[in-house]
Amino acid sequence: MGVNAWRFAATYDRFSAATEQGGLAAHRADLLADARGRTLEIGGGTGANLAHYGPAVDALTVTEPHPAMVKRLERKLVGREHADPPVMVLRAPAEDLPFPDATFDTVVSTLVLCSVDDQPRALRELRRVLRPDGRLLFMEHVRSDDPGLARRQDRMNWLNRIVVLCDCNRPTLRSIEAAGFTLTHLTRSTLPKAPSFASPLVVGIATPPGPTPAETPGSVTHRAGG
After folding, report:
1. Which of 25, 56, 71, 176 has the most C-beta neighbours closer than 10 Å?
2. Is 34 a residue whose pLDDT tops 50?
3. Superfamily of domain 3-223
């Protein structure tokens, strides 16, 4: 982990405060209201999602590969040893999750699939650890469907990688479907307070191959972005 990554971890909460207040926290709350049962969150960062998990979550496991982020995440959990839901933090990359097959009812990825080293492998791991009737809840900034903006994302990706250590031009929705998931809900929006080349945002729910959960519609529901 380079010096830039340690600096990014140290400043992440301050750096993202305006974006969270501008609407990202509301997206997190809406998305995580659908978390239930045994839940895994990958790339937990500094713990921005922790406050949004509700009583339907029986137990929460958070993985994070970077030691600087793990330290900050663990600090947020001090005094929450008897929190509801109980939280366990593990240092692990999304591409190599230390769990048996079909362990979790819900897997959560928020602003993570843009930075994993191997996105297809990470998605295969998420599919593997999900139960057949489980759900993937995701919120990711992605490559634009607009050709002009997509070209700008390609031109500016080098800067995005330097500043926020991720790619702004990954076709993450296509990758999710290529991994065998079926989209059941999808909201297209924009990342608040972000430059245009990093702003296209998708928030959604996907299911792995297998029985469709009774509470999940069988077709994609497109909701207007906010």
Report:
1. 176
2. yes
3. Vaccinia Virus protein VP39 (3.40.50.150)
